[in-house]
Design brief:
The protein is α/β, with parallel strands linked by helices. It is 23% helix and 20% strand. Bound molecules: 2-acetamido-2-deoxy-beta-D-glucopyranose (5 copies). InterPro entries: DUF604 (IPR006740).
C-alpha cells in the first residue's frame, strides 16, 4: 500500500488559497461586526464583548498522581495495512505483537481473501475500514486512501471498547515496535492532556516537502486519549478543510495543529526514510530508548547474510531480554593498543585502532543513502563519512547470539551478547597509533547486568578484557564513574 508515511514522496499541493480567501472573508466579517458594534453602541461597554465566547479559564490541572503507572494494557494500536501487502508484512507485525496482551487492530482496505483465512491469532485482529465514498467531500479528495488511513483512529474510537485506554498509537503494517520502551516513554506524559508524540523524517528534504512538525505514520505516533476524544468530533470537518493533502500523517498533524497541539519528537522513534545499509545509524543510536523501526522492505536486511524476516527476528532476541539497553551505545578503550570499542547493545560492536571521543562516535557512519538522491545537506543529524583510512575504519562485528545466564544454574548475574566479525577489514593496521592490528579478534562478548532495566537516558561505561593476540575480547558494562570522560 502507499504507506501512511510518505513513501510516495510527492510534494503536497499547497492549494491553500481558498482557505486563505475564506480566512480573509471571516476576518473581514469579524472586523465588520466590531465596526458596527463600536459605531452604533458607543456607550454600551457590554456589547463590545458580544463576539467572545464565555469560556472559563481552566484550573491548572496537575498530573493525576493517583492514576496507576502506564502499562501495555493502556495502549490501543491502530495499525494500517492493506490486503496487497499483508502477506509480506505480516512477519514484521508478528515479531512484536503479543497475542492476548496488545490491544488494537490492523485496518484493511477490503476483507481478506480466502487464501488469507483463517486469520492467525498471532496477528492483530483485522477490521475493514468504512467506505469513505459516503463522505460528502469524497469527490474532492486527491488521495482517498490517505483519508481512509487517518479515519482508522476515528473508527477505532467508535468501535472498540476503549475502557482504560490512555494512548492510541498509529502505525503502518511494516512498523516494528519495542513495547517495553514504548510503555516507559508514554508513561512520562499525562494522557488526560493533549499529546501528539512521534518523529519526523531523517531526511531534510522529506520534512521540507511535507512538514517538520509532522509525526511520520510509518515511524508510528501516539495520540493521548484526551486528544483523540477531541479529534473524533472534528475529524470529518478537518478532512473537508484539507481535501488536497496527499498523506494521512500530514492530515493528522494538520488536524491536531488546528486543535492547538504540536508534535513532540521522541528520538527513539524512527521513520527510516533511508535506503541501503542502515548499520551506521543503528550503531550510533541516540541515548533515548529504541521505540520503533520502519521501512524494512526499503533497506538491506539489518544483519549480514540473513533475509529481512530473519534479521528482524534476530533483533527481537536481545529485545526480549532487555529493551532498555537495545542499541544503546557504550564506549570503552584499550589504552595499551590505542583501540576504541563502541558497542551498540544487541546489534553491533566496532573496534577502531584509534582513541575516538564519544563526541565523534555518537555521529552515525553514513553507510546509508537518503530516501531520494539530493544535494547535501541530506540528514537531520550529523554523520561521519565512511573511510578506508586504517586509523578511522572500524572492524565491524554484528550480533551473533544472546545468552541469559540467569536461565541456567550459573551464579553469574549477566546477560551475555556475542558479536562476530561480519567481514574482514582488509586494511593494514593503523601505524601512526602504534601499529596494533585488531585483525586477530573474531568475536566480542559483552556482559551486561540482568538486574532490571537501565535507567532511561543514562549512559553506561565499560571495561575491556583482552590479551594481545587472542581471538576473543570481553567487555563488561558498568555504571560510569563520577566525571568519567569518554575520550
Ligand atoms: C485519577 O485517576 C484515577 C485512577 O485512574 C481515577 O479514578 C480518577 O477519576 C482520576 N482523577 C481525575 C481528576 O482525573
Ligand atoms: C489467547 O487467548 C485465547 C482465548 O482465551 C487462548 O485460546 C490462546 O491460547 C491465548 N494465546 C496465548 C498465546 O496466550
Ligand atoms: C527467510 O528465510 C526463512 C528461512 O530461514 C524462510 O522461511 C523465509 O521464507 C525467507 N523469507 C524470505 C522473504 O525470503
Ligand atoms: C598510541 O598512539 C600515539 C599516537 O597517536 C603514540 O604516540 C603512542 O605511542 C601509542 N601508544 C601505544 C601503546 O602504542
Ligand atoms: C606494522 O605491523 C605489520 C605486521 O603486523 C608489519 O608488517 C609492518 O611493517 C608494521 N608497520 C610499521 C610501520 O611498523
Amino acid at each position: 500500500m502507499p504507506p501512511s508515511s510518505p513513501s510516495i514522496q510527492r510534494k503536497p499541493q499547497l492549494s491553500s488559497l481558498p482557505i486563505l480567501c475564506k480566512g480573509i472573508v471571516i476576518c473581514g466579517l469579524v472586523l465588520f461586526l466590531f465596526y458596527t458594534v463600536l459605531c452604533h453602541h458607543p456607550n454600551n461597554d457590554n456589547d463590545l464583548f458580544v463576539p467572545f465566547i464565555a469560556q472559563e479559564w481552566p484550573a491548572s490541572s496537575p498530573t493525576n498522581v493517583t492514576s496507576s503507572p502506564t502499562d501495555l494494557s493502556h495502549i490501543m494500536f491502530v495499525l494500517v495495512g492493506c490486503i496487497r501487502t499483508w502477506k509480506y508484512r505480516r512477519p514484521y507485525i508478528e515479531a512484536w505483537w503479543r497475542e492476548n496482551k496488545t490491544r488494537g487492530n490492523i485496518w484493511l482496505d477490503v476483507a481478506p481473501t480466502q487464501e488469507l483465512l483463517p486469520w492467525p491469532s498471532s496477528s492483530p485482529p483485522f477490521r475493514v475500514n468504512e467506505d469513505i465514498k459516503k463522505l460528502k467531500i469524497y469527490p474532492k479528495l486527491v488521495n482517498p486512501v490517505e483519508v481512509r488511513i487517518y479515519r482508522s483512529v476515528l473508527e477505532t474510537f467508535r468501535l472498540e471498547d476503549n475502557k482504560d485506554v490512555r494512548w492510541f498509537v498509529m502505525a503502518d503494517d511494516d512498523t516494528l515496535f519495542f513495547l517495553d520502551n514504548l510503555v516507559e516513554v508514554l508513561g512520562k506524559y499525562d494522557h488526560t492532556k493533549y499529546y501528539y508524540i512521534g518523529t519526523n523524517s531523517e531526511c531534510i528534504k522529506s520534512n521540507y516537502d511535507f512538514s517538520f512538525d509532522m509525526g511520520y505514520g510509518g515511524a508510528g505516533y501516539a495520540l493521548s486519549y484526551a486528544l483523540v476524544e477531541a479529534l473524533v468530533s472534528t475529524i470529518d470537518e478537518c478532512i473537508e478543510r484539507y481535501p488536497h493533502l496527499y498523506v494521512s500523517d500530514y492530515l493528522s498533524s494538520s488536524c491536531s495543529a488546528d486543535l492547538g497541539v504540536d508534535l513532540i519528537i521522541e528520538k527513539g522513534i524512527h521513520q527510516i526514510d533511508l535506503h541501503g545499509d542502515i548499520s551506521g545509524l543503528l550503531s550510533s543510536h541516540p541515548k533515548s530508548s529504541l521505540i520503533t523501526l520502519h521501512h524494512f522492505d526499503a533497506i538491506d536486511p539489518i544483519f549480514p547474510s540473513m533475509n529481512r524476516t530473519e534479521a528482524v527476528n534476530h533483533l527481537m532476541k536481545p529485545a526480549k531480554l532487555d529493551q532498555s539497553r537495545l542499541l544503546q551505545q557504550t564506549i570503552c578503550y584499550l589504552r595499551q593498543s590505542n583501540w576504541t570499542f563502541s558497542i551498540s547493545w544487541g546489534y553491533s560492536a566496532h573496534i577502531y585502532e584509534s582513541i575516538f571521543p564519544r563526541s565523534i562516535l555518537r555521529r552515525p557512519l553514513e553507510t546509508f543513502r537518503p530516501w531520494k538522491e539530493d544535494r547535501p545537506p541530506l540528514f537531520m543529524f550529523n554523520t561521519r563519512r565512511p573511510s578506508n583510512d586504517p586509523c578511522k575504519a572500524p572492524h565491524v562485528f554484528s550480533l551473533e547470539g544472546v545468552l541469559d545466564r540467569d536461565e541456567g544454574s550459573s551464579s553469574h548475574e549477566h546477560v551475555i551478547t556475542t558479536y562476530s566479525r561480519s567481514l574482514q577489514r582488509n586494511l593494514p593496521a593503523c601505524s601512526s597509533n602504534g601499529n596494533h592490528s585488531a585483525d586477530p579478534i573474531v568475536k566480542i562478548q559483552v556482559f551486561s547486568p540482568s538486574t532490571g532495566r537501565k535507567e532511561a537516558g543514562r549512559i553506561e561505561c565499560c571495561d575491556v578484557d583482552y590479551v594481545a593476540g587472542k581471538d576473543i575480547a570481553n567487555i563488561k558494562l558498568r555504571a560510569c564513574m563520577k566525571s568519567e570522560v569518554l575520550a
